[in-house]
Amino acid sequence: MKKNNLRKKIYWGLLTLSLVGSLAACTNRSKETTQSSSTLSSVPQATTTTSSQSTTTSSSAVPTTTTTSTDLANLTYDGVQTVDINGGVPTFSPADLSLANGAWEKYGDLDTLNRATSAEAMLNQSLMPKDGEERGSISSVTPTGWKNKKISGGYLYNRSHLIGWALADENANWQNLITGTRQLNSPEMLRFEMDVKTYLEASTDHYVRYSVTPIFRGDELLARGVHMQAQSIGDNEISFNVFIHNVQDGVTLNYADGSSSLTGETVSSSSAPTTSSSAPANTPAPTTAPNATADEKEYVDAKGNGLIKGSKNKIYHLPGSKYYDQTTNPKAWFKTIAEAKAAGYRAPK
């Protein structure tokens, strides 16, 4: 009997120890779980970035704010005539850059004030003037703000092509011409046009998406400037997005109607036709050094660029001469007759 009681005591004792151990283990596991959860909650959690979030982050590093026509019209000229828009990066959409329709050009309708509104194109050699083709007269077009006058070196205004004749073979197209200063035409618009022209001439497979918009402030008849964008298809050989102010050094322009006043000189008014944006400023006053011969007289613009045209027929044409304006695709430019002659060019007969 005593042995049985002893066995029972031992049994219940072992059972009690087992239960206490199990309870302790459960308590420890609960503490570990709580501590683990607490540790995880104190660690910054990884988040999944959606495509739209990624785009927003990426675009915030590069300025992509679209500049409206109103914004451009309100820009103040501070002495820098050509300014980059959007960091110089064009804002064409993938659809804008599509070659589904091949080469094309489109001009916006004149607005209620008879102002040109836009010029869009997918440029290619197929749209350019053919070899030997001469530019037609554009004197029949009188764009808004056309109050021309003579200033030092020539006329103040040009009939400025939005898309240059050398790129699209457009002549007296009212929708493609605005009143632009000589300085707007050349060298500012011209240098961008010539880059595009050179690129297109390199291959029949080259295409350039091109856009030019004249920017007017309110109901003004003279454009404040032009917004130019271009992007070559398949590469970045041509890529720009700029605004060019329509200004002329030494001249105060009245953008309301195109009238103007000059500083320190008296000039006569005229409505005589001048060159388009495909040619530099015409009829400069030659710079003559003491004892210089006629061949050494310099014909240059305000920035010192030569203005004597050398044609593909190896003939040079002086600004203001009979065939100067008709030579729309010069092969060379010279400052003096001596330079032209040295390069193998002769005077016209």
Low-confidence segments: 22-65, 266-291
Number of domains: 2
Architecture (CATH level 2) name of the largest domain: 3-Layer(aba) Sandwich
Q: If helices are DSSP runs of H or I spanning 4 or more residues, what is the number of helices?
A: 6
Biggest sheet character: 6 strands, antiparallel
How far is the first residue's CA from the last residue's CA? Answer: 149 Å
| SSE run | HHHEEEEEEHEHEEEEEEEEH
- Structural class category: alpha+beta
CATH fold naming of the largest domain: Extracellular Endonuclease, Chain A
The named CATH superfamily of the largest domain: Extracellular Endonuclease, subunit A
- In CATH, what is the class of the largest domain? Alpha Beta
**Helix content percent band:** 10-25%
Q: How much strand content do the residues show? A: 15-25%
Oligomer: single chain
Mean of residue pLDDT?
79
